[in-house]
Amino acid sequence: METEKNVTKRVPGKTGFKNEMKIEFDAVSENEAFARVAVAAFVAPLNPTVEEISDIKTAVSEAVTNAIIHGYDAEEKTDSEADANKVYIHCLLLGDVLQVEVVDEGKGIENIEQAMEPLFTTKPDMDRSGMGFAFMEAFMDELEVISEPSMGTTVLMSKKLGTLPWIDHEE
Amino acid sequence: MFSFFIVRMPNADTLCESSYWTERGKEMEEDFKVIDNYLMVKMPKEVDHHNSGYISKTADKFIMKDGIGNVVFDFEDTKFMDSSGIGIIIGRYKKISYFGGKVFAVNADTRIKRTLMICGLHKVIEIME
User: Fold this and answer.
1) For residue A145, what are the β-bridge partners?
2) How many CB pairs under 8 A join A and B?
3) B31-44, pLDDT tens digit by residue?
4) What is the third-level CATH fold of B43-129?
5) Residue B23 to chain A, least CA–CA distance (Å)
6) In A, which residues are within 8 Å of B52 by CB distance?
7) How far is Cα B8 from Cα B29, in angstroms, rounded to an integer?
């Protein structure tokens, strides 16, 4: 297996390592935990630190939560409508860079700039803090939001792993 | 000695945590305790949108019923929190601060603290060991 080397020794900037994953699941809140743990497990071959894992989990959780409660308005849908609602996650590992794409086919965002402002929320009654995009920006390196009303939303995030020095031990 | 640096992935019991997946009823109410006019809320292992609704609803019920002055959130068991947890705290803070009450966060680990700090919550609530 190609990943074998990376497990025992993580070399920052190692090129040629590539891995890809796609998952698709129902837009229900139970799946938020599944989604973030799946992405965290996917980056495990790169020996991420606990900090990095925690950052990735938080960012993915925010993106998936946004898709479920804002994209699909999960609370207002009937069961049959909710069955057709899917969230797609596409992960790509290129060298030591993780790219995550979270896609929904929901109602989209009218004003992306306003939506990305910290503390702006359309659902203050549901105890939403409006910090979702701010967290994604803080915990990942790059963030891009592509959306149009009624055309769904795509959130693209990337993070370079292993920016902290790696301690190499001789056996 | 090398294994010290290898990150242990979340194991099966993190994934299948029973309190996360099942509908919580009576047994979850043990996580809410009233001492004097303090409401102590024990936060679950993972705080996200899925269980934040239940926590805010139950906390509100206690705040309305018992004349609670202050709310204490205990993060002792919490390993993960996203912006839904911030929403819970801000929502309770708004309710309780009308009557001059205070909100506290105790036993938060470094990652939870960082999440609270990013939102500037340390200016309105008290974070204690």
Assistant:
1) A155
2) 89
3) 898 988 899 999 99
4) Transcription Regulator spoIIAA (3.30.750)
5) 11
6) 127
7) 32
